[in-house]
Amino acid sequence: MKIITNGDRSFDLEKLLAKPLFAHLATVDKDAPSDTPVWFHWEKQQLWIIGTPSDTFPKRIKNNPKCAIGIADFNPKAGLVLHAGFRGTAAVLPFDSTIANRLLSRYLGLDENKWDPRFKNLDKSNVLIRFTPETVVVRDQSYLAT
After folding, report:
1. What is the pLDDT of residues 40-63, one digit of tens each?
2. What pTM does this model have?
3. In whole angstroms, what is the distance from residue 77 CA to residue 14 CA?
4. Contacts of 41 (CB under 8 A, 6+ apart)
5. In sequence order, which ranges of the chain are alpha helices (DSSP H)?
């Protein structure tokens, strides 16, 4: 994975990816772009995303594995704007509850009993998306908040 920074306007990518932020998954189907907000898990230089039976992005990935993912940490009161933009390829894989639980616990906490019922007992009808970045652009675009 090639990391492209903007000199002194970069930041620690690993710290950003450890936060429970939204990612935006960009896919293409029949020359039409699509953007899907997703939760993610970063592990071993790959992003993992859960796909449900009603999601359409796994089908788009099967048809065209080239994707982009954008992740931003934004706090307007503090003037914080950190952005990581990934380009690479994704694959649709069988569901793995171990990876899914690591992903979900980042957002919902460690106690599965307290999770929203929609996220409990996910099964093999779901899939995992494994995104492998080729490049990532890391930019700190923070500003002085007034």
Report:
1. 999 999 999 999 999 999 999 999
2. 0.93
3. 23
4. 47, 48, 49, 99, 102, 103, 106
5. 13-17, 57-63, 97-108
Distance CA 3, CA 1 (A): 6
Residue pair 39/107 in contact (Cβ under 8 Å)? The answer is: yes
Task: Spell out a b/e string for 13-28, using b for 16 or more CB atoms within 10 Å of the CB, else e.
Answer: beebbeeebebebbbe
CA dihedral 23, 40, 47, 30 (to 10 degrees): -50
What are the tens digits of pLDDT across the range 111-146?
Answer: 999 999 999 889 999 999 999 999 999 999 999 988
How do the domains of the chain map onto residue ranges? 2-140
CATH superfamily, domain at 2-140: Electron Transport, Fmn-binding Protein; Chain A (2.30.110.10)
Q: How many CB atoms lie within 10 A of CB 145?
A: 10
Tell me the one-letter amino acid at 114. Answer: K
